[in-house]
Amino acid sequence: MKQLYIKQKVFSLSGKFTVKDQQENDVYYVEGSFLQIPKTFSIMNAARDEVALITKKVFSFLPIFFVEVNGQEVLTIKKEFSFFKARYTIDAAGIEVKGNWWDMDFQILQHGEVVGKVNKEWFTWGDSYKVQILNEEMEAIIIALVVAIDCVKADQAGASSAAAT
Protein backbone atom coordinates (compact mmCIF):
# COMPACT_ATOMS: atom_id res chain seq x y z
CA MET A 1 0.00 0.00 0.00
CA LYS A 2 1.30 3.42 -0.98
CA GLN A 3 0.47 6.58 0.97
CA LEU A 4 0.47 10.02 -0.63
CA TYR A 5 -0.35 13.41 0.86
CA ILE A 6 -2.03 16.36 -0.80
CA LYS A 7 -1.56 19.68 0.93
CA GLN A 8 -2.85 22.74 -0.79
CA LYS A 9 -1.12 26.00 -0.16
CA VAL A 10 -3.45 28.37 1.63
CA PHE A 11 -4.17 31.60 -0.28
CA SER A 12 -2.51 30.28 -3.45
CA LEU A 13 -4.09 32.27 -6.27
CA SER A 14 -2.42 30.21 -8.97
CA GLY A 15 -3.81 26.91 -7.67
CA LYS A 16 -0.40 25.23 -7.56
CA PHE A 17 0.32 22.47 -5.09
CA THR A 18 2.15 19.15 -4.85
CA VAL A 19 1.37 15.58 -3.90
CA LYS A 20 4.06 14.12 -1.64
CA ASP A 21 5.01 10.65 -0.51
CA GLN A 22 5.70 9.58 3.10
CA GLN A 23 9.28 10.88 2.86
CA GLU A 24 7.91 14.29 1.73
CA ASN A 25 9.27 13.89 -1.81
CA ASP A 26 7.21 15.51 -4.57
CA VAL A 27 5.44 12.79 -6.58
CA TYR A 28 2.89 14.87 -8.53
CA TYR A 29 2.58 18.56 -9.36
CA VAL A 30 -0.85 20.16 -9.75
CA GLU A 31 -1.25 23.47 -11.56
CA GLY A 32 -4.52 25.30 -12.02
CA SER A 33 -5.19 27.77 -14.79
CA PHE A 34 -5.55 31.22 -13.25
CA LEU A 35 -8.10 33.55 -14.89
CA GLN A 36 -8.46 31.21 -17.86
CA ILE A 37 -11.62 29.85 -19.45
CA PRO A 38 -12.25 26.96 -19.23
CA LYS A 39 -10.77 26.49 -15.75
CA THR A 40 -8.39 23.52 -15.80
CA PHE A 41 -6.09 21.67 -13.42
CA SER A 42 -3.16 19.76 -14.87
CA ILE A 43 -1.63 16.90 -12.85
CA MET A 44 1.97 16.07 -13.76
CA ASN A 45 4.28 13.31 -12.58
CA ALA A 46 7.77 13.90 -11.16
CA ALA A 47 9.18 14.22 -14.72
CA ARG A 48 6.58 16.98 -15.35
CA ASP A 49 4.67 14.85 -17.89
CA GLU A 50 0.91 15.45 -17.73
CA VAL A 51 -0.89 12.36 -16.44
CA ALA A 52 -4.34 13.88 -15.83
CA LEU A 53 -6.39 16.94 -16.73
CA ILE A 54 -9.48 18.29 -14.95
CA THR A 55 -11.67 20.72 -16.90
CA LYS A 56 -14.72 22.65 -15.72
CA LYS A 57 -17.30 22.81 -18.51
CA VAL A 58 -18.10 26.34 -19.61
CA PHE A 59 -21.61 27.62 -20.27
CA SER A 60 -23.35 24.90 -18.33
CA PHE A 61 -26.47 25.57 -16.23
CA LEU A 62 -25.06 23.39 -13.44
CA PRO A 63 -21.32 22.80 -12.92
CA ILE A 64 -19.75 19.80 -14.66
CA PHE A 65 -16.13 18.70 -14.28
CA PHE A 66 -14.44 16.31 -16.74
CA VAL A 67 -11.44 14.22 -15.66
CA GLU A 68 -9.02 12.79 -18.22
CA VAL A 69 -6.20 10.42 -17.33
CA ASN A 70 -3.52 9.70 -19.94
CA GLY A 71 -5.70 11.39 -22.60
CA GLN A 72 -8.82 9.30 -21.86
CA GLU A 73 -11.92 10.73 -20.17
CA VAL A 74 -12.43 8.51 -17.12
CA LEU A 75 -15.05 10.33 -15.09
CA THR A 76 -17.33 13.34 -14.75
CA ILE A 77 -18.61 15.08 -11.66
CA LYS A 78 -21.97 16.82 -12.11
CA LYS A 79 -23.98 19.03 -9.80
CA GLU A 80 -27.60 17.93 -9.57
CA PHE A 81 -30.48 20.38 -9.35
CA SER A 82 -31.46 20.76 -5.70
CA PHE A 83 -33.19 23.46 -3.66
CA PHE A 84 -31.42 22.83 -0.37
CA LYS A 85 -28.12 20.99 0.02
CA ALA A 86 -25.72 20.79 -2.95
CA ARG A 87 -25.71 17.30 -4.46
CA TYR A 88 -23.25 15.91 -6.95
CA THR A 89 -22.91 12.66 -8.88
CA ILE A 90 -19.72 10.97 -10.03
CA ASP A 91 -20.04 9.10 -13.33
CA ALA A 92 -17.21 6.70 -14.08
CA ALA A 93 -17.08 3.28 -15.68
CA GLY A 94 -16.61 0.75 -12.91
CA ILE A 95 -15.50 3.36 -10.36
CA GLU A 96 -17.55 4.47 -7.38
CA VAL A 97 -16.96 6.58 -4.31
CA LYS A 98 -18.40 5.46 -0.96
CA GLY A 99 -18.38 7.58 2.15
CA ASN A 100 -18.52 11.27 2.82
CA TRP A 101 -16.61 12.76 -0.08
CA TRP A 102 -17.77 16.27 0.83
CA ASP A 103 -15.69 15.96 4.04
CA MET A 104 -12.89 14.11 2.16
CA ASP A 105 -13.42 10.84 4.07
CA PHE A 106 -14.20 8.11 1.54
CA GLN A 107 -13.16 4.95 -0.26
CA ILE A 108 -12.69 4.54 -4.01
CA LEU A 109 -13.90 1.24 -5.43
CA GLN A 110 -13.33 -0.31 -8.83
CA HIS A 111 -15.80 -3.06 -9.71
CA GLY A 112 -16.65 -3.39 -6.00
CA GLU A 113 -13.03 -3.71 -4.80
CA VAL A 114 -11.44 -0.96 -2.67
CA VAL A 115 -8.52 0.55 -4.62
CA GLY A 116 -7.97 3.70 -2.56
CA LYS A 117 -8.90 5.53 0.64
CA VAL A 118 -8.94 9.26 1.37
CA ASN A 119 -8.99 10.93 4.79
CA LYS A 120 -8.82 14.58 5.63
CA GLU A 121 -5.98 15.43 7.98
CA TRP A 122 -7.18 17.74 10.76
CA PHE A 123 -5.26 20.42 12.63
CA THR A 124 -3.18 21.41 9.61
CA TRP A 125 -2.73 24.81 7.96
CA GLY A 126 -4.79 24.58 4.81
CA ASP A 127 -6.47 21.50 3.44
CA SER A 128 -4.43 18.33 3.71
CA TYR A 129 -5.51 14.83 2.65
CA LYS A 130 -3.97 11.40 3.16
CA VAL A 131 -4.50 9.21 0.11
CA GLN A 132 -3.90 5.47 0.46
CA ILE A 133 -3.34 3.69 -2.85
CA LEU A 134 -4.25 -0.01 -2.61
CA ASN A 135 -4.03 -0.67 -6.37
CA GLU A 136 -1.04 1.20 -7.82
CA GLU A 137 -2.39 0.82 -11.38
CA MET A 138 -5.19 3.17 -10.30
CA GLU A 139 -2.87 5.77 -8.73
CA ALA A 140 -3.25 8.51 -11.38
CA ILE A 141 -7.05 8.09 -11.45
CA ILE A 142 -7.28 8.22 -7.64
CA ILE A 143 -5.13 11.38 -7.43
CA ALA A 144 -7.14 12.99 -10.27
CA LEU A 145 -10.40 12.09 -8.50
CA VAL A 146 -9.28 13.63 -5.20
CA VAL A 147 -8.13 16.83 -6.93
CA ALA A 148 -11.37 16.97 -8.95
CA ILE A 149 -13.50 16.62 -5.80
CA ASP A 150 -11.47 19.39 -4.20
CA CYS A 151 -12.10 21.56 -7.32
CA VAL A 152 -15.84 20.93 -7.01
CA LYS A 153 -15.74 21.92 -3.33
CA ALA A 154 -13.78 25.12 -4.10
CA ASP A 155 -16.19 25.96 -6.93
CA GLN A 156 -19.18 25.46 -4.60
CA ALA A 157 -17.56 27.59 -1.88
CA GLY A 158 -16.88 30.34 -4.43
CA ALA A 159 -20.47 30.21 -5.70
CA SER A 160 -21.80 30.36 -2.14
CA SER A 161 -19.69 33.37 -1.19
CA ALA A 162 -20.61 35.16 -4.45
CA ALA A 163 -24.32 34.55 -3.79
CA ALA A 164 -23.98 35.94 -0.25
CA THR A 165 -22.68 39.32 -1.45
UniProtKB/TrEMBL annotation:
InterPro entries: LOR, LOR_sf, Tubby-like_C. It holds the Pfam family LOR. Belongs to the LOR family. This is LURP-one-related family protein. It comes from Lysinibacillus xylanilyticus.
